[in-house]
Amino acid sequence: MRGRRGLPQAAAMRLAVLIDAENAQARLVASVLQAVDRHGRATLRRAYGDWSAPALSGWRDAVDTHAIEPIQQFRSRSGKNSSDCAMIVDAMDLLHGGRFDGFCLMSNDNDFASLARRIRREGRHVFGFGTRGAGEQLQQACDRYLMVDDAPRRIAAADDDAAMCRAEQVAVLAAAVEGCREASGWSPLTAVGQRAKQEGVTPAELGFSSLRKLLEAFAFFEISSAESGAGTRPNEFVRRIPASR
């Protein structure tokens, strides 16, 4: 089911997870996949690297545990990173195949910045995952880039404001945002909450202390505030983030 912007509802978003194993840490993959699950369904999981190299020995258990398909690429004698090339070529094939609504790139490498921009030009979302050492170009090229090394509690949904939501309830929220959209493209947060409540969905039921915090848990919603006068609370609005800007 698609909204008026041509984007899939949150619950139905099909995501391809592509992991640059040579520039990512195996110990963080569980947290990354939990974060991915909040934004849709990872229907494909692949990790790229030279699996004969001792440096990737830590990934071997991770790919088995998390049902990740390892893609073998031996290092090129020319010095070029064959794994990076394979991941980029695969991503382009998947993009043109039309099966996915978004791509999740787990890497710190700026070499994937051009890939992220290319995917976004085709109207698909790009979520990046890495650590504090991630390249600035890659971070800027993604719709959202999440530092997984310094936010494990938030990613793993371990606190009160990060409970996982059931797919059908997320779909209700997405429909409420679309249904309350004004000419400006933004939906009043109060109206969204009222419509969702009519469908039996409330932030408290999903483990969040407010509707704003619930919507902010997803990478494809954006919140804005506007002053409403002295002595009164600001008006708050929400919208789906466009896939390309």
From TrEMBL:
<dbReference type="GO" id="GO:0004540">
    <property type="term" value="F:RNA nuclease activity"/>
</dbReference>
<protein>
    <submittedName>
        <fullName>Maebl</fullName>
    </submittedName>
</protein>
<dbReference type="InterPro" id="IPR041966">
    <property type="entry name" value="LOTUS-like"/>
</dbReference>
<dbReference type="Pfam" id="PF01936">
    <property type="entry name" value="NYN"/>
</dbReference>
<feature type="domain" description="NYN">
    <location>
        <begin position="14"/>
        <end position="146"/>
    </location>
</feature>
<dbReference type="InterPro" id="IPR021139">
    <property type="entry name" value="NYN"/>
</dbReference>
